[in-house]
Every structure is written in C-alpha cells, then in structure tokens.
Amino acid sequence: MNNKLLSGHIDLLVSAILWGGSIVVLKNLIWDIPPMTINFFRFFIAALTLFFIAWHKKVSIKIEKKEITPLVIKALTGVSLYYFLETLSLKYLEASIVGIILGIIPIFTLAVDIVLNGRRVKPFLVLSFGLSILGIGLTVADSLETRYLNGSLLGYLLIFGSNCSWVFYTYISKKYNSDCPNLIAIAYQMLFASWAFIPGLFTEIPKISLDLNWYMVSLQIILLALPSSAFAYYFYFRGLKKIDMSIASLYLNLIPVISLISSCLFLGEKLTIFKTSGALLVALSLASMVFAGNDILGGKNGRGSV
Question: Is the whole-model pTM more than 0.70?
C-alpha cells in the first residue's frame, strides 16, 4: 500500500472514530447543558474553524446567491433538526443504543428511495434490510424491558425522527447540488444551523446552573465542535480524495460499533449480548450493501438496472 492510500485510510478511520465517539460526549454533556445551547456553540465554532481552514488553504468561501436557499434548507434538516433530535434522545436512551440506531440511516434512506422512485427490490437488498431490522430489534429489546416506563419510548421516537430528518436532507442534497467545495458547503450549513438555535438560547441559558464545572463543560463543547464536527468532516473529505467512495463507506459502518465500545468504556454502559449482536448486524448489513453496489437495486418499475 502506497503512502497516499495509507493516509487516506487513516483519514477515514479517524473520522469514523470521531463521529462514533461524539455520542459519548453528548450523552455526558446533555445533563448539564440544554440541547439548543450545546448545538449552537458546537456548530458555530465548527463553522468558524472550517472557514479558517479554507482561508489557510486559500480556498474561496464565496457562494452564489442561488445556493443560499438550498444550503439553508440543508442546514435546517441535516444539521439543526437532525442533531437537536439526536441530542434530546440521549436524555432517554443509552448512548450505545442511539449510535446503533443512527447506523441504519443509509438503509433507511435507501428504503425511502425505493418507495419514492418505484425501484425493483432485489433479494440481496431484502437480506440487508432483514439484518438491519434484526439488529435494531435486538437493540430495542435490550432496553425496553427495563427502561420503557422511564421514557425510552420517547427516546426512540426522537432518534427515529432524527433519522427521518437525515433522509429528507439526503433527498434535498440530491435535488440541489452545490457547485462550491464540500468543506465550504458544510461550513455554511453549520453556520446557518447554529443561527437556528439562537432563539432557544434565550430560554435555555437562564436555566443553566452556575455551579457547573465550566472547565469540563467548555472542554466537551470544544470536543464536539472541533474533533467531532470540523475535523471529522475535514478528514473525511480529505480521505475521499485518496480512497474510492465504495471503500470509504465501509469506514462509516464502524460508527455503531465505535459508539457501543466507547459508551461502555467511558460511560459504564453494559455491553450486553443483545446490543453487541445488534451493532454487529447493523454494521454487517451496511457492509453488504456497500459490497453489492448498484447490483442490489433494479430499475424503476422493473425496467433494467441502475
């Protein structure tokens, strides 16, 4: 393996670890800082960081007026709503469970695409769907029995709502492609998303206790803003320049497993056989879809293949 390929694999692995571990930081922080406040500072700092990286690399941050509206819509659905629901769900669910359920987003997105575009479903895709559903079923079964009365049902509704938000974001992204570089588009989306949280600051900030360990709170917000947001996207897009997209997607399959392991190590969550099996099944279903590529889908209304 040459140095370029090796550095690409390292970039993608680092981005997956940072995204998988961010759920642990969120879970720990949500008990001290409300969700809108967390996400405002997270994405405002991340946006400024990405703009600084662009400036350092002499990449233009100018965008055309026609791109502003699509970027705002993407920001509201794929960042503001998605992360708000994810953050709030962590008040009711274990971080490991949230990470596993978020892992089915690619499959959920593909299922919606099949329904909306009338694509034929091939047997291999049915198998991938089945593995992911079984994985989520095992994960849910592990928690409902003991946590149902404590609000876990609301947590599941919130996290599945987060998944729906991302599906809509994906649909909008396909419909309105941006001509600006990926990092600039992400930076603007994070900036616009942070503005959407500003109204919530007026109601949340007065309720925050002044007796908190502000050093730890600040450190966790910086961890979410820089490693888990700005740097994770930077490494991911840098890795995509060196590694084929089909291979790069495999690293995203590690996120449910990383969130499970990190939740057990840093939050003391139990590593049960149900959660472990669920995480592995979700990762396996995602990997099988990546390896199959376009062969898992037929054409629209049964005409040919994609």
Answer: yes
Task: Provide the 10 A C-beta neighbour count for residue 193.
Answer: 29
Residue 34 near residue 241, CB atoms below 8 Å:
no
User: Using one digit for the tens of pLDDT, what is the confidence trace for 31-56?
Assistant: 999 999 999 999 999 999 999 999 99
Q: What are 178-236's pLDDT values in tens digits? A: 778 888 999 999 999 999 999 999 999 999 999 999 999 999 999 999 999 999 989 98
The CA distance from 90 to 99, in Å, is 10
Is residue 33 within 8 Å of 208, Cβ to Cβ?
yes
User: Rounded to 5 degrees, what are φ and ψ at 245?
Assistant: -60, -40
Using alpha carbons, list the distances in angstroms from residue 132 to 67, 69, 76, 202, 264.
Answer: 35, 35, 27, 40, 22
State the residue for tokens 């879970």.
27
DSSP state, residue 217: H
Does the pLDDT value for residue 306 go beyond 50? no
Question: Is the separation of the CB atoms in 97 and 29 below 8 Å?
Answer: no
pLDDT, position 283: 76
Residue 179: CB atoms within 10 Å: 9
In degrees, rounded to 5, the angle at the alpha carbon of residue 263 between the alpha carbons of residues 145 and 158 is: 55
Residues pairing with 300 in the sheet = 119
